[in-house]
Design a protein that fits this description.
The complex is a heterodimer of chains A (166) and B (168). By secondary structure, chain A is mainly alpha-helical. Chain A has 8 helices and no strands. In chain A, helix 1 runs parallel beside helix 3, helix 2 crosses helix 3 and helix 5 crosses helix 8. In chain A, 34% of the residues are buried. Chain B has 3 domains: 49 residues, no CATH class; 50 residues, no CATH class; 46 residues. Chain B has 7 helices and no strands. Classes of the chains: A mainly alpha (166), B mainly alpha (168). Chains A and B meet through helix 1, helix 2, helix 5, helix 6 and helix 8 of A and helix 1, helix 3, helix 4 and helix 5 of B.
């Protein structure tokens, strides 16, 4: 069944993109509603997962452009992730702090760059798969991933420098 | 190479996607530039952190909401299905033409003249029907007169024939 097979994937991409748990639940529901409506148009020769992720990506970016989530704060990193992240005792606190900064910095990225960073670095998809989902050339995807990572790295660098000053 | 150019190569450098020549250029630059080396270590940390974000489980509440979605959708469709089937389309077309004409009549600025001409047309039609009905009445009378004449002439022929036989 579609819900059993894809709900986790869709919920996680919605959560990683929006950063807000109740918002991600509503988005997942809306994406599934869109899926049921679009299902008769699906070409069975195509890859269903890529098609579904394209549908989800389009909906998430459209919603983002309409509502501008960047104004709303992302959930506290500790709320949902910390319980599932196992850290060793050494450097554990610092690493968690940095993860928190990276999680919050995702909101500073534009919707298109945030989406490719989520697909590549969080979900570990291949560049070719991302190009298919985003409907863009491979070179554009690689350059967006690069730009996104550099933006995050600069934010992390600034925060680290501020920590050292204090 | 300048820092800006090297920074663009750092991400592919981490993913081992550079040519041997580019790799050497980046390595040499990193040995002399603390800014780019610190950026590389941040990039590496980001890469590691993002990959380590765990997948969350879907709550039971959301799962239940997702399971009832197709049923909800079907309910809406059942109501509309009757009106949306192709065989109902001519009825919809006729109804829409009817509504267009009705609205044309009601919202026309010269509604009175339309009403008068409509009335005239209705009267004309009615009188035509009456005339036609009267004509059919005459035709019926003519037909019965013709029938009587025909029967009379037959009777006369019969008596003539019978009279001739008796004479013989």
């Amino acid at each position: 069944m579609l819900v059993n097979q894809y709900s986790k994937r869709i919920f996680n991409i919605s959560y990683q993109f929006s950063g807000n748990y109740p918002e991600a639940e509503d988005l997942t529901q809306e994406i599934f509603l869109k899926l049921y409506n679009a299902l008769p148009k699906f070409d069975f020769e195509k890859d269903f997962t890529a098609w579904l992720l394209t549908l989800a990506k389009n909906y998430l970016i459209d919603q983002y452009r309409k509502t501008k989530w960047e104004r709303t704060k992302r959930d506290n990193f500790n709320d949902h992730f910390l319980a599932s992240t196992i850290e060793g005792p050494e450097n554990g606190i610092i690493r968690t702090e940095h993860k928190k900064i990276i999680w919050e910095s995702l909101n500073h990225l534009s919707s298109d760059i945030r989406m490719v960073i989520i697909l590549r670095d969080i979900q570990g998809k291949k560049y070719e798969e991302i190009a298919e989902i985003m409907g863009l050339p491979l070179g554009t995807i690689k350059s967006r991933v690069n730009r996104g990572r550099l933006q995050l790295a600069r934010i992390l660098k600034e925060k680290k420098e501020r920590e050292n000053e204090m | 190479m300048k820092c800006e150019k090297i920074q663009d190569l750092l991400s592919p450098y981490l993913e081992n996607e550079l040519s041997a020549e580019e790799k050497v250029a980046v390595k040499n630059h990193l040995q002399t530039c603390p800014g780019c080396s610190s950026l590389l270590s941040n990039l590496s940390e980001i890469h590691e952190s993002l990959a380590g974000f765990p997948e969350l489980e879907v709550s039971q509440d959301l799962l239940e909401r997702l399971y009832i979605l197709p049923r909800k959708k079907r309910k809406i469709h059942l109501g509309l299905d009757f009106f949306l089937r192709p065989s109902f389309q001519p009825v919809l077309a006729v109804a829409s033409i009817f509504f267009v004409l009705i609205s044309f009549y009601f919202f026309h600025p010269n509604k009175k003249s339309i009403h008068q001409s409509l009335e005239r047309q209705v009267h004309l039609g009615y009188s035509k029907i009456v005339r036609l009905y009267a004509k059919t009445g005459y035709f019926k009378e003519d037909l019965s007169a013709f029938k009587d004449n025909f029967l009379d002439s037959l009777q006369q022929q019969k008596t003539k024939l019978l009279g001739g036989n008796e004479d013989e």
